[in-house]
Amino acid sequence: MFDIITIGSATRDVFLQSSAIKIKPSKTSPTGLDECLPLGAKIELKDIIFDTGGGATNAGATFANLGLKTAAICRLGKDLGGLEIGQILKNHGISNKFLQLDDKLGTAYSVILLAGTGQRSILVYRGASQNISLKEIPWSQVKTNWLYVTSLAGNLALIKRLWQFAKKNKIKIAWNPGGKELDWGIARLTPFIKQTAFFTVNTEEAAKLTRQKRGDIKSAAKKLKNICKCLSLTNGSKGAYAWQRGQTLFAPALKVKRINATGAGDAFGSGFVVGLLKKNNLAHALKMGVLNANMVITKMGAKNGLLKKMPSRKELRRVKVKKINL
Predict the structure, then answer these.
(1) Would you say residue 37 lies in a domain?
(2) What domain range includes position 99?
(3) Which of 37, 76, 199, 280 has the fewest other C-beta atoms within 10 Å?
(4) SS3 sequence, 195-217?
(5) Which residues fall within 8 angstroms of residue 190, CB to CB, at 6 or more apart?
(6) Per-residue DSSP letter, 117
(7) Are 64 and 93 in contact (CB under 8 A)?
(8) Tens digit of each residue's pLDDT (9 = 90 or more) over 16-75
(9) How far is Cα 323 from Cα 177, in angstroms, rounded to an integer?
(10) pTM check: above 0.90
(11) H/E element holding 58?
(12) Quick one: average pLDDT of 101-122?
């Protein structure tokens, strides 16, 4: 019996860092910013770092680090990247009994372009990770209290099966959907969100899902609060919001040196869920999420800065939580 099983992507990551990468305002960018390089130039790199990532493995690392019996359902290629990801999971104490191997596609690969501010853009080859097979999941062995669902590349059949399985077996679901799931819109996702114990997206994703203007957090939150049992909205360096049973909380991000923002969302969501599992308290869960996310951005890679053990009361007090109206 597992405490939690993650499901979603597993990637081989390479981080390319250069002062030549510039962040510039853009009216056409969905984030309002573009990451720019001079066309035709030879760009000097400050550093190049290889790591592993993907929502399922990043979240799984938090859960295993903090003492939860954890497994991951991912699909890998039969290549060196797949072998490395399997070994990394094993090193973290994450069961790899549910890993799938693809005969045709390679292991997913991400190239992360890092500006000096720690902001980044990611070039993604999804490869095998987008083809998790329903038939290859040994459902009779999927015994867990929680499922932590990350991006599933818009695989509606898999999502339906997971939610049906969870309902039948009284498994709680935490969900951090990917872009292709968000593209479906709130009407199509509502039945799944209503069954979800914890739903987390960033403010840009919330606006995309609810068809609100970028930056209109209040309108997006209002629509989501009507259908969520427990909701969090992360807002990058500005902090994070959490809502449950009519109570809305906000916690600002900690003042730390941002080295790399990759994996911050995974760190927040998984830290939040650990808080719910340990204490079933919204404020505690929000503190855990913020602390884990703010730790991971201080190190290169999506796993290196994650909490290695449950934080002390002193560490948790660093995160200031307040009630707000949103």
Answers:
(1) no
(2) 2-30+42-323
(3) 280
(4) HCCEEEEEHHHHHHHHCCCCCCH
(5) 227
(6) T
(7) yes
(8) 888 888 888 887 877 778 888 888 888 888 888 899 999 999 999 999 999 999 999 999
(9) 26
(10) yes
(11) helix 55-65
(12) 86
Instruction: Assign 175 to helix, strand or coil.
Output: strand
CA dihedral 141, 142, 143, 147 (to 10 degrees): 170
* Cα separation, 3 vs 11, whole angstroms: 23
**Cα–Cα distance, 58 to 55 (Å, whole number):** 5
Domain CATH code at residue 11? 3.40.1190.20
Residue 291 phi, psi (nearest 5): -65, -45
Angstrom distance (rounded) from CA 299 to CA 261 = 9
Task: Phi first, then psi: give them for residue 93, nearest 5 degrees.
Answer: 85, 25
Measured distance CA(73)–CA(190) in Å, rounded: 24
For 98, the token pair is 């549910």
Count of domains observed in the chain: 1
Residue 241 domain-assigned? yes
Domain for residue 64, yes or no? yes
List strands edge to edge, sheet with 322-323: 70-73, 2-7, 144-149, 172-175, 198-202, 230-234, 240-244, 247-251, 322-323
The two tokens of residue 61 are: 């690392």
35 part of a folded domain: no
Question: Which pair of structure tokens corresponds to residue 129?
Answer: 């990770």
Q: What is the pLDDT of residue 295?
A: 92
What is the C-alpha to C-alpha distance for residues 178 and 129, in angstroms, rounded to an integer?
13
Record the tokens describing residue 25, joined without a space.
């305002």
Classify each residue of 178-208 as buried b or exposed e, where b means 16 or more C-beta atoms within 10 Å of its C-beta: beebbeeebeebeebbeebbbbbbbbbbbbb
Write 262-265 long-range contacts (CB < 8 A, 24+): 262/13, 262/15, 262/53, 262/112, 262/120, 262/122, 262/301, 262/302, 263/53, 263/58, 263/296, 263/301, 263/302, 263/303, 264/234, 264/236, 264/293, 264/296, 264/297, 265/176, 265/200, 265/202, 265/234, 265/293
**Interval 225-256: pLDDT, tens:** 999 999 999 999 999 999 999 999 999 999 88
Element (H or E) spanning 221, and its range? helix 217-225
Residue 55: C-alpha distances to residues 74, 116, 282 (Å): 10, 24, 23
